[in-house]
Queue: 2 jobs
Job 1
Amino acid sequence: MIGRRRKRSSPLRADSPPAEYGSTAATKEPVGDLVPVPIEREVPRFGHGSRVPGWDEAADLAKDPAEIPDAATTPVPAELRAEIEAHMAKYPDFHSAAIPALAAAQRVHGWCSPEAIIQTACVMRLTPGYLIAVASFYDMLETRPVGRHAIYVCTNISCSLCGADELLERLEQETEGDADFNVRHFECLGACDIAPMASVDGVYVGPITLSEVPTLIEQVRDGTPPLPGKQLHLRKSTDPGAARAQPAGTDPGAARAQPGAADPLSPTHSHGEPMGGGPVGPPAAIERPPPIEDET
Ligand code: FES
């Protein structure tokens, strides 16, 4: 195995860890008692520097060709079978259901284990190799055993500038040795306005301060909503302070703020006032294709 170190520079760290990340963390110049701190992370490398193990190993041509698992001898949980078949029914080409089918199997087995792959292949009438190729490409499909609580910390640019590297480090420290947790970094999760943020068992939470990490992990362990006041889907506006402005105990969405809960937004929910009120101009001209000339 070839190991290579990727050096990352975290934005800033205070001598005593900051309780809140401020806008000053967006610069790499020392500000006050904040100084740049290099963070080193190990990125696994395999043959020829690849991140994919075994990609350069020759195929074993002496092996029997892959076969579709026999439905008569492959037990599949009834609920998993029903879910996979429902996904297959949604697409004109059933191969398109491979990702949701594997995700369903992962929920049942905890990861895309050999058994999960065989069961999915059996229902979809595909070879296990086809599904292994899909599972090993998409990094939210786990190809090795992981903890059941997935915490994805966004370390893309906005979150990184607001202290995501330190947040990830703190979460890793807090969960060290606990096999129930799968803490990892992730690229932009699309919620940059609440940076630094994380997806906690599928619930977007942010901005998360270092001092909130122990509480967050405790809530996940207890099965209670993770930092309800900071959950993205409970916010009523893009103002990160809006959800927190509610008096304690009056948050109507707190009970629904469980991982995997339905979207709590009501049909009447609005992100703002309807547009309008400005001067109304003439309607735009309708563009029409040029007439086709008659060649006869
Ligand atoms: S950079 Fe973190 S959500 Fe976009």
Job 2
Amino acid sequence: MHILKCDNCRKEIKNREQRVVAGLGWNEKELCLDCGRPVKNFLLKKKLISAEEFAKLK
Ligand SMILES: [Zn+2]
């Protein structure tokens, strides 16, 4: 079984719901929630995602 790991801190991601995917298709990074939170905040701040999309990401 494929084990998901955070591309930043290498922590195992046990649940697909507990990850943040950042990137543009060919260069996707999977991050744990701890590492992904600043990414989501960044995207929101730069208005790359809407508040609605932001809410969908946990
Ligand atoms: Zn991480």
